[in-house]
What does this fold into?
Amino acid sequence: MRLLAYIIGFLILIAGLAWGAIELGAPVLYVEIGSVILLGLGIILGASRTRNYHNQGDVTVIRDDDRV
It folds into this structure.
């Protein structure tokens, strides 16, 4: 769910940047290429930042019947 929110936010950012670039007179082809590159970067960053870290193996198990 967090990945979806991250991607939606990144899409809004890309749309704003693309709109601004077109208004400034950038060629549409360059804006499309840049948008696709930013979308790929957003997916990679979103997946790496929302990774599940629950199974890292840092758990120490102590049984109740262990006597010192």
